[in-house]
Design goal:
The protein is α+β, with helices and mostly antiparallel strands. It has twelve helices and 13 strands. It has helices at residues 2-80, 85-96, 142-151, 153-159, 204-211, 252-255, 260-269, 308-311, 313-363, 381-418, 433-452, 457-468; strands spanning 102-109, 125-131, 137-140, 164-165, 169-173, 176-189, 192-202, 226-231, 234-238, 246-247, 273-279, 282-293, 298-307. The strands form two sheets. Strands 1, 2, 3, 4, 5, 6 and 7 form a seven-stranded antiparallel sheet that branches. The relative contact order is 0.09. The mean pLDDT is 81.
């Protein structure tokens, strides 16, 4: 019985507890997962926006320097009617030395100069400085720099009055290949374009920006992020080795995704977005921030990807923590309830069961009247039941005791009658109504017999014996 009830109660507790904890765990997991997803989204988006801001600032800074130089050159030409080499040479050197990321700078203007080395084949003034790798710049003669001017669509665009930025290209400077981008700003005078300021920037500075881990703590998801600066469908720079200056269609992780077309459309449209892609059986969270270079009118995308299993690892850990905690909680609750119910309920039920069995055994005359009372200190339902049983047991023991005494007396009376004495009566009062009725009937019968026969059967027998011997001289003495 104990195991049966305990098991049933334990099963009920387990089921109810499991359902409640499961529901709470699911709610907590979903809520936490949503919160963590928002946090991951915010992290990726902020990282993308942060790098975009830095890159925009760097390029805009270069554009501002070029615009300032263009303004100075325009003023010099307006003042002198030409470009004195003594004034323009320091300007082109200063422009080229303005940043470590500048590989070469040139000033090209539709005017004359006093130095024939800076006269282009078409008669215009052309000065070009290249970074010599020693922290300074080397000036090239115009004849060596003119091919760049005549063949550059970016310079041509600037000569048409547009501030321009070109696509990433590989350029050789001082015998070394660089991944570069060309910027060009027109020189204007009285609303007319009279020349151009152009620079080649080493994209390595962008590489440093998007690969910088200085402020990223250990364990941060951004340490596992793949980052791509995308311009005109090309990953200009990336922190992933070997994937800089590649069309995004040639980047395996992106191209192998079934979502590549949608991703490509978003990038082409300049959409800010956050989503998920699957590539080669692995899921990635993706955030893109589109930013426009205000001075150049170019649209770039800062694309950041993080493996979902790494980005959502805290969620996974938390969910497992919730599951394990729930299991431990269920075990603790079940064990607690099992032993509590066993002590507070099952043992008391067993005591009641044993007492009832003993009581019925006494009623059925299977054992003597010796039943211990139940504990009634508890005031709960079982305590009330125990108290009722104790009262009933007391009444039963009293009744059985009275009945037993009455029956014993009846047996003694019967023996006395058997000895010939009809004057005895059953005086004990039993508790059982039927025994009371039987007592009264027997006593009445004895009264009648005593009245009609006499109280001493032995005396009657003595007289009968005398009569049998034909001695009629005697008589019943107490009749």
């Amino acid at each position: 019985m104990r195991k049966h009830i305990s098991l049933k109660v334990a099963v009920v507790v387990v089921v109810v507890t499991f359902i409640v904890i499961l529901i709470l765990s699911i709610i907590a997991a979903i809520s936490t997962s949503n919160t963590m997803n928002k946090s991951v989204r915010q992290t990726l988006t902020l990282a993308s926006e942060g790098m975009s801001t830095v890159l925009d600032g760097k390029i805009s800074q270069a554009g501002t320097s070029m615009s300032v130089t263009a303004s100075k050159v325009s003023e010099v030409i307006a003042h002198f009617g030409m470009l004195p080499s003594a004034l323009v040479t320091p300007e082109v050197r200063s422009l080229n030395n303005s940043s470590d990321s500048v590989l070469s700078s040139l000033i090209y203007a539709d005017t004359t100069t006093d130095n024939p080395n800076y006269v282009a084949p078409n008669g215009h003034t052309l000065l070009r400085a290249i970074n010599n790798g020693r922290g300074d710049s080397t000036l090239l003669y115009a004849k060596h720099a003119y091919d760049e001017v005549s063949s550059s669509p970016i310079i041509k665009s600037a000569l048409e009055g547009k501030i321009s930025i070109g696509p990433p290209t590989v350029k050789t400077v001082n015998g070394k290949e660089y991944n570069t981008v060309q910027l060009a700003v027109p020189i204007t005078q009285n609303g007319k374009v009279i020349g151009v300021i152009a620079q080649f920037l080493d994209l390595n500075f962008m590489q440093k920006i998007i690969s910088d881990m200085t402020d990223i703590r250990e364990g941060d998801i951004m340490r596992s992020a793949s980052r791509y600066l995308v311009y005109d469908g090309v990953a200009v720079v990336s922190n992933v080795t070997g994937e800089s200056n590649k069309p995004i269609g040639d980047i395996k992780m992106l191209a192998d995704s079934k979502d590549f077309d949608a991703l490509q459309t978003h990038l082409a449209n300049g959409d800010d977005f956050y989503g998920k892609i699957t590539s080669d059986g692995r899921s990635f969270l993706v955030a893109n921030n589109n930013f426009k270079l205000s001075k150049f009118g170019a649209s770039l995308n800062m694309l950041v990807l993080v493996p979902s299993d790494i980005a959502l690892k805290p969620v996974t850990i938390l969910i497992w923590t919730i599951v394990i905690t729930a299991i431990i909680a269920i075990i603790i609750i079940v064990v607690f309830f099992y032993f509590y119910i066993d002590k507070a309920f099952i043992k008391r039920v067993r005591n009641i069961q044993a007492t009832l069995i003993d009581t019925f055994a006494v009623i059925n005359h299977e054992k003597a009247i010796n039943i211990p009372k139940l504990d009634t200190r508890s005031k709960d339902e079982l305590g009330v039941i125990s108290n009722v049983i104790n009262i009933a047991m007391d009444k039963t023991k009293t009744s059985l005791s009275k009945d037993s005494e009455a029956v014993s007396e009846a047996l003694n009376v019967a023996k006395t009658i058997e000895e010939g004495n009809l004057s005895v009566r059953i005086l004990k009062l039993p508790s059982n109504p039927q025994l009371i009725e039987l007592r009264d009937v027997l006593n009445n019968m004895l009264d009648v017999l005593e009245l009609k026969i006499g109280s001493n059967m032995n005396e009657i027998e003595r007289v009968f014996d005398s009569y049998l011997k034909l001695d009629f001289s005697t008589s019943v003495l107490d009749s």
